[in-house]
Amino acid sequence: MYKNLLLDDIETAILQAIENKKLGNMEEYTKGSLVIEKPKNSDFGDFAVNVSSLARQARIAPPMIANAIVECLGDKEYETSVVGGFINFKLSEKMLTDVIVEILNKKENYGKPENIEAEKIILEYVSANPTGPFHIGHGRWAAMGSALANLLKFYGHDVFQEFYINDAGSQIQKLGRSLLIRVKQELGENIDFPEDEQERKNYYPGEYLIPVAKDFLKENQPTEDIQVLSDYAKKYMENVQKELLEKFRVHFDKFYSELDLHNSGKVDASYQKLQESGKLYEKDGAMWFKSSEYGDDQDRVIKKADGSNTYLTADIAYHIDKLDRGFDRLINIWGADHHGYVPRVKASIEALGYDPNKLEVLLGQLVNLVINGNEVRMGKRKNMVTLEDLIDEVGIDATRFWMCMRNIDTTLDFDIELAKTASDENPVFYVQYAHARVCSILRNLVNEKLNTETGEKTPAPMTEEEFENAISNVDYEAMKKAIPTAKKLILKLEEFKSMIESSAKSRTVYTVCRYVQDLAGEFHSFYNSNRVICDDNDLMKSRVALVYSIKTVLKNALDILAVNAPERM
User: What residues contact 41, with CB distance under 8 A and at least 6 apart?
Assistant: First the structure.
């Protein structure tokens, strides 16, 4: 990455300038204190660094500091200039051409860093109750979680994706009671869910259980055994959820059952370990965990007075199980309403002798559906309640892209009508069209053209062999012709590497969406002003290498988002 290269050069030059006594009173420099940025005015250069902050130690003016550092840089491929306290860098034509060469050589591996400290990561997300279809909030976690997994894998980490099935609580019995009512209705009984609002909370009155009841009666004799009905409904809904996840391009390595966690004895074991280490105490008949000793704002109940466990008890055991499975990093995606839950889980990890910093929790905000500029309350629009409904209406690509477009801690307004349009205002269409446009150029490049009126054929601008040579043996001299009009595009292509690094480290995927939108914008702007297929053969070869590089990087980024990169639209 050129940003890193330039910063390394600057920091080495600073240390040399200090040694040469050219930086006034400055006697030491801490690496990482400066930042490489893009100048607001591109006429100054391609990158810049502001060294004015060093004036506090040096006790000399920023321009003197900048010039002293430049003197110690020595001969480099790039050009430098000083404006005030800024050192500006202008990349050489060779450095810019090297970007294209690297992309064409590495192809699908372009952007993958080398020699990172790879971690074994378990990423847990969605983790919905198996009591009904996914709502659109689950869709956001599914899209963002799977895209984050792809990003971290691309970066070089070993990522294990897990779905924690919340199947051990009273909600499963509630599901069985609800299915019983639907079964009786199918058998012709005059029965319905309670009208009383409080009583109704003990059931799942959604119509989605009607087909479950029909299938149950096809496969089984009628029964009022709630356990039998609960088990059937749970398995049925788990299968529905798994099928939708696969359709949505979300692939989990394991579906981990909370019920299995209890049956394995791991919940009791972690409880006993906390008790034996003196981390529990009794109060009002309940057992409390001393979580306040580890940063929580208060102690927490983990066993109620009636002897039943709280949700926290199983969660403690689950996270300890993750650590015992040998994962270096635990990343969870939870809803923002779980923010208070984070410190108590971290407290339990520390209390049991593990490093709490191994746990990272990404807290996500909700999704608002917007139709014709108006927010739609969930449940008020019958055709747009579930994730599956949304996918069926706008498509998988649009749903995934839109779900990933904003930072996870920001509420997402999902504009349904816009997401369906084939226009530049629709971000996913704008990006996919850029890829399809590049593919069209490359097809036209090697295909002969037919005049439909005369039947006359015009030879292809390039043979297949010439095309392969253009993208495998970049001509540095010829590329000089393309660089003046393609410089912004090349710099944006080079930025892909630093974007991948920063996104992986910050656990963000919206930055990938933003990047492909910017790259598509740069390409559309370039294409509208420059012909790729032209009479100047050297210029054409150079632009072919450029647009093939754009195709490669767009595809790499869209693969991370699990969004298709279409060749025709």
Answer: none
